[in-house]
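Reviewers of the previous submission asked for a worked example of the structure-prediction workflow described in the proposal, so we include one complete record here. The input consisted solely of the amino acid sequence. No template or homolog information was supplied to the procedure at any stage.
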Amino acid sequence: MAFASFLGRVLFASVFILSAYQEFNEFGVDGGPAAEALKPKFNVFTHVVTSKAGIQVPEIEIKHLVTAAMILKGVGGFFFIFGSSLGAYLLLLHQMIATPILYDFYNYDIDEKEFSHLFVKFTQNMALFGALLFFIGMKNSMPRRRSKKVHKTKTV
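From that input alone, the workflow returned the following structure tokens.
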């Protein structure tokens, strides 16, 4: 059972680690294709947050956001493989920030082609989010292992 659990964590984390690796290889000086795809979506997100919530989003270079995403996915995925809750929390943080920005189906009419594509990707990421919550819940519900110390009785 321990091997199956480890294998499941490896397969799950590979989604994040391989994505971070690909973004790292394509990064260049400007953040690469990931930054190109993120820039217009982040601009729409900041406009919506500013206009609807009245919160001013600070100026952030897109390549720094891509770097942060790579770190969260890479480090979080690595720690997750070895069963660390920290890894799951890092991946959760990435999912919470990236999913509503990248898969903004709510900015499209239901009849548009982009709506269905983005909605499917959004729900897939919500499934990953749910799996991470499940992992954290199961990890916290298990009793901690205690070392088995043998107490020697003194003989007289």
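DSSP finds five helices and no strands in the chain. We consider this example representative of the routine output the project will generate in years two and three.
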